[in-house]
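Standup notes
- DV: blocked on the single-chain target, sequence here:
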Amino acid sequence: MNESLAQHYLEDSLASFRAYKKLAEKALDQLSEDEFFITLDEEANSIAVIMKHMAGNMLSRWTDFLTTDGEKPDRNRDMEFVIEPQTGKEDVLAYWEKGWQRVFDTVESLSSADLGKKVMIRGKEHTVIQAINRQLMHYSYHIGQIVFLAKHFRSSEWKSLSIPRNKSLEFNQYLGEQKLASGTEHRFDVASKFVEESE
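- DV (later): unblocked, structure below
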């Protein structure tokens, strides 16, 4: 792979991980502590469970990323879906931060030369690009769940994280007026700024 293209891929991947984390946290900021732990039915996961599972996955996948299987022997995936009685919101957020920091530290340490290397996940070989894409898809899937649940709990009090309903034309006009420099702001941030300035 061309070195400049490889570097662009790594920078874009890191920016995407950061943007999805920020998106989730804008949803989390709208919740009460109790709402972190509510389940919609017996088979549903609470937001706290989703966050715990994501962090557990991150710590397993990104620890010694290039040299060990991403499914670590000491990972207890089933317990990621259990919230113990003494667990509070701050515990969940601390574990979430620990997981994301491992992601950021690892991706920041990668070089363009690493992208063609092979890593293992559950005994299956992946290129580094495939492994990064796999985790981006996994995390965006779960962050969509977090946003959906947060919006459900807030209902009419929900502060939109994207283009609000019936505001597409205004948003397109806003983009034209802003003359945004390409690549300087993530699309999530642009939409969020539009919502804030429209209030």
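- Follow-up: The chain has six helices and two strands.
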